[in-house]
Every structure is written in C-alpha cells, then in structure tokens.
Amino acid sequence: MSERKYYVYEWIRLDTNEPFYVGKGCGNRAYHTKKGRNAKFKAIVNHVDCAVVILMDNLTDEEAYQYEVWFINEYRYVYGFDLANMDDGGLGAVSGKLNSMYGRKGYLHPNYNRKPSEETRLKMSLSRTGARNPMYGKRGEKSPLYGRKATLERRLKISEALKGKPKSEEHRRKISELAKTRIGKKNSNYGNGHKIAGSKNPSAIKVIVYNKSKEIEFVGCKNEVAEKYNISLYLLNKLRNKVINVERDFSREKEKYRHIDGYEFKM
C-alpha cells in the first residue's frame, strides 16, 4: 500500500490574495523557493510577499497528483487565476529521469517563450472536462473542498475575478429558465422576506468597508453600512470607492464625520 505522506499546496501572493502556484510534494517541498521552480514563480516570490497553504494532506502519491490536477484546472480555467504552473499538473506521476520532461528547463523546455493560443487553451480545458477529469464525480464528502469554507477576503477576490467575464448564450439561457421557476410562490424564499432582509438578500448590493489600516472592518448592504457609520445613503454613494479625506470631501460638519477619515466604502 502506498505511503500517505504526500500533500497538495498553493502559494498565494499577499498583494492580491490570489493563488499563483499549485503543487504536490512531501516533506518541506512546499516551502522551497529555488530548486525546481520556474522563472515566473521566482519572479513573484522575489518581489511580492507570499504565503503557503496546504490544501490537502495525508495523501498517496497518486491521490496527490489527482488533486493537483483538479486544483490547477479550477484555478486556471474556472476562476481565471494567472498561475505560474507550466502545465496542468500530473506530469510528475513518472518521476526522476524516467519523466519525459526531466532536465528540460528554460530554453530546453518545448514551451519556452511560447504563449498558447486561445484554441490550444480551449483544447487543454476540454481535455480535462467531464469524465476525463480525474476529479469527475467527486462531490460532497469526496470533494477536496468538502468542509472548507473560503475566507471572506478570498470570496471577494474570486467575485472580483469573475466580474465582467462574458457568459455564453447557453449559460444565459439556463439562467433565464431557472429564474422563471422562481416566480411568486415557486420561489423558495416566498413569505420569508424577514429572513433575507438587508445583507442576507443575495441580490443586495454589498458594501465592503475598509478601515484606516486597509483591513476589512465590515460588510453589509447600503442601509446597514449607512446606519452603522452614521452617514446618509446620499453620502455613501458620493464617497464610494474612494479613500475618504474629511478635510477634502466635507465642506461642513467635518467633526461629525471624523470617525470615517481614511476609510473606504467599496461596492
């Protein structure tokens, strides 16, 4: 039976809180910054503060490669993160000199200084789609993300990454059909208005409040933020997405709003 000493890890750049590398290893491999790392990985690590997160552990060698492939596929093709990984994972399943890519680094690598076309990227994505994906059917407790809840900051980053991405006609059609099944009493929230009031309403505009230290202090709908910080909805809309400077942004009642000096209401 294979030893369960392997794990899957990710490197996160702290300036954006987005993952930029996913790998598989054992021992202290996750924390290496030079040996076996490509130029893009080193460039990020040398210029940006980073952190390492162990995504899955206590795995066999084969399981670790499967999870590596799954995470790279999700991050690269679903969430659109710019990964430093040279491939879609799993190529290390044959290790050492038996691996066809052994020693082929830098200009010796077949993909050196080449950027895949959109057609190639699509083919790569399709090659991991459906039953061809090693994580196909692994839902619920079988999913590597089961029981893991993304932090608020990570969820916000994912939301920002997905904004503005065009939806296919098929996707739009499915959304439209789903909406038709949720009208009136067919809606699961029918009669539960009090339960989805304010920020609980998934359709409510969320306001993220950053304090003077640039940390997230509060997240809520417009009404909740206006009440908590004692400002009108008019002012909230006027000051949104800008770092507040009381001296600059207020012509009167400056002392009344000193408590939000240096704050930012992002929406």
UniProtKB/TrEMBL annotation:
SMART domains membership: IENR2 (SM00496)
Database matches in CDD domains: GIY-YIG_COG3680
Chain ranges of the Nuclease associated modular domain: 112-128, 146-162, 163-179
SUPFAM superfamilies: DNA-binding domain of intron-encoded endonucleases (SSF64496)
Protein name as annotated: Nuclease associated modular domain-containing protein
Originating species: Geobacillus icigianus
Lineage: Bacteria, Bacillati, Bacillota, Bacilli, Bacillales
